[in-house]
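Q: Here's a chain of 342 amino acids. Please give me its 3D structure as tokens.
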Amino acid sequence: MGRLIRLALILIFSSGFATLTKAQDIHYSMFYNGPQILNPALTGIFYGDSRIMGHYRRQWKKVPVDYMTFSGTYDMKVYPKKQGNDFWGFGLNFNYDRAGFSKLSLTNLQLGASYSKELSSNVFLTGGAQLGFSQRAFKTDELTFDNQFLSGAFDPTAPSGEDLTNTSFFFVDLGVGGNLRLQNEDRRSKLDLGLSLYHLLEPNQSFFDDSGVNLPRRLAVHALGALKVADPLDILLRGTAQFQSSYKEFVPGIAARIYLDQKKGKELAFQFGINARFNSITDAIIPTIEVHYRTLSVGASYDVNVSQFEIATDGAGGPEIWVSYRIVKVKPLNDFKTCPIF
């Protein structure tokens, strides 16, 4: 199993650089820390019984079309009473995204569920689904229009000439996905391979009475791997390719996790890495850092913009912050079942 994981990680990481990128949906540079956005089948795929996470991103603050994104998630495991290591995962995901002078925003609440089936020792296949309830809205306070420029001067009281009576709408969304987990006996070396499809219903996105403006389906492929190379050191390789209409994105990453203490109840590790986002040319280089203490994890990254847009941003893409807290319950001996996923 260790040789299989090692070979798969090398192939996945080396093949990813051929894909071009651009994004349309909510996305994070530390995509592996936003599992329910990446794939519904990653709901419940962690060590522990429940988990709370928060994710914040601010992009292009120096230009008027800056983006702000926030996500808060909760997921948990439920173990069937029957024998074996199969388990359910249930999750709740809240996202808020806002951009530009119009404050164009997306607010959504997603309910997710997954089921993980043990195929053999340390091999799990998971299927998941996610139901979302969303509102898209914008504000007109800071918008200007051609009709408001009269005789060469701007008059904010002049009518815009636009029909902006409907500034928000609600829609229902649906996503599905699958994930295959391979892991070693010590569970330090592991690999997740997954495929997901979002916006199955292709909901209408028009603010007007136009039913022909639909949200395109998004296909996401991911590989998340860790390889134990020494007792205090893991190498992490991960990548995602996402496709939505004519838009494409690929983000590979590599990191090293150094364990300073591995004693139960005193675990401490530092992680340093780098990700990259590609366009027809490289879009951004993204250094990352994480601290893992017991069941608390904190991470940060910063996009260094190296695309042609750096003329406007002066290379400043934006910061991203992530925090996670896992709860591991002590179970009574007669109900004890060890978490099969690390």
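Q: Can you summarize the key feature?
A: The chain has three helices and 16 strands.
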